[in-house]
Design brief:
alpha+beta, Adenine-n6-DNA-methyltransferase TaqI, Chain A, domain 2, 10 helices
Amino acid sequence: MKDVAQSRWETKPLGEVCKFIGGGTPSKQNPAFWGGNFPWVSPKDMKSEIVSDSIDHVTESAIEQSAAKRIPEGSLLIVVRSGILARTIPIAIAGRELTVNQDLKAMVPDKGLDRHFLAYFLRSAEGQLLDRVTRGATVHKLDMPLIKSLPIPFPPLEEQRRIVAVLDEAFEGLARARAHTEANLQNARELFESLRFAMLSERTEGWEVHRLGDCFRLKSGDNLTAKKMVAGRFPVYGGNGIAGTHNESNLSGDNVIIGRVGALCGNARYIDQDIWLTDNAFKVVNYSFPFDCKFLTYLLNFKNLRSLARQAAQPVISNSSLADLELKFPASVELQAELASKLAAAEMELEVVQTKYEAKIQGLDDLRQSLLQKAFAGELTKGN
């Protein structure tokens, strides 16, 4: 039950307490429109909580003679059209008078609504906003009529500002904790990379250096379309990993496979089970030197084969594109296996640390959202 102070809260649609201002793009062919004093903000400029500048600037005449409009300082800017709307809703405050392109809307709150309080509300409602996104192939749009109908609960202005102060202090602490956790996670990853570099790049006695094309060949798997797959117990590996299951296999035993086509082409995997390998992936064959398959997998991933892909409609690697890549490896398969075992142990430790830190980051994000929910339910009392 709300106390006396909470009973003074109102709830109104956003469209009743905010003025929405659209944007536009002045003609690129008119040089008189560009190079002026007004920042022309687009989604790429929405990288901080306050936007005061951009790469592009327009003139007074551009604003007067195009769909671009003056956006007052202190207005809230919200991205309404962008590919990024699949996962987040960028929101910022205009740090000065500016203008925006058609992919943004400005929200000017009424005098009785604090802009920082409104910004926190929009962040608390991000899940609802994302539910109101119309999905396109590459570009997504916020449904503005539904956004304007979104109800915002708010108390008197003085209480809004008190709530904002409480949230500012809490979020500052959460941001510090998140940054510290992310730094620890990055340090753990860098430590593993340093270990991998030391194990796989140093030339020592008993190591050999050869061209990849002189070490082995790559052979494609067999074509298997999604329509021809018969669900079964054998994983189907394509260019980007597992693509389904099939009732037959075409590869068994210990093998190294490599994505041939697609976003993850060049990614090596150690396989020790029966699978179906499609023609979007390679298997390593015709070895000229003895290799431990696990070690070779680590070595190939260390060499970043993806960087050598030919860029076409889809990235693709081939025997010819990788042939001259230099590989350094111990001649002893026993030493290879020992290094692979050490790397596997280090990788497992990294996974444990990553899981721990990612859970902490998720916990901080959950706490952030919990505070926002309490704020707009009238539960951030003066004792909080």
